[in-house]
Amino acid sequence: MAEHDSKSDVVTTEAPELKIRRYTVGYIRDWKTHEPAPTITLKGYWLEDAGFATGTPLKIRVMPGCLVLTAQEPLPAPPPEPEIMQTLKKVCKLSGRKQQQILEFIEVISAKRPPAGKWG
């Protein structure tokens, strides 16, 4: 008789619940030719539950009779715009007269000046 009760370790993994959705290919009118073009519209909270939140980039693999949609990592956010560019955009919205004044001011402060203490 065995000294210890032996039980084989059973490892089970649960597969994610697969839900089948049924859709019908519809059509929309092509904006140039007004010819009908096939369209598929997917909508519902189940998309977010499946990892497809609003704004998620998609990769679509196309095969005969089969489309595979794969969620992609979002693109990194662009770096913040430098303060000088934000200021330049504000200047562009000013009147021509004010833009000219700013240009003259920049010319004055960027002009070469003689070194301090040397008055010529």
Summed up:
By secondary structure, this protein is an alpha+beta fold. 25% of the residues lie in helices and 17% in strands. Among the domains are: 26-71, no CATH class; 78-112, no CATH class.
Secondary-structure map:
Layout: E1 26-29, E2 36-39, H1 45-49, E3 58-63, E4 66-71, H2 83-92, H3 96-110
Model description:
Pfam families: SymE_toxin (PF08845). This is Endoribonuclease SymE. It is found in: Cytoplasm. The chain has 120 residues and is α+β, with helices and mostly antiparallel strands. The chain is built from three helices and four strands; from the N terminus they run ββαββαα. Strands 1-2 form a two-stranded antiparallel sheet. It has a two-stranded antiparallel sheet with strand order 3-4.
Q: How many DSSP E strands?
A: 4
Query: Could you list the spans in which at least 5 consecutive residues all have pLDDT below 50?
Result: none
Rg from C-alpha positions? 33 Å
- Element order: H for helix, E for strand: EEHEEHH
Note the main sheet.
2 strands, antiparallel
Number of H- or I-type helical stretches: 3
Basic shape = elongated
Largest beta sheet: what is the strand line-up?
1-2
> What would the average pLDDT be, to the nearest integer?
84
| Broad structural category | alpha+beta
Q: How large is the share of residues in beta strands?
A: 15-25%
The span between the termini is: 113 Å
Percent helix: 25-40%
Family: Belongs to the SymE family.
EC number: 3.1.-.-
Function: Involved in the degradation and recycling of damaged RNA. It is itself a target for degradation by the ATP-dependent protease Lon.
Enzyme class: hydrolase
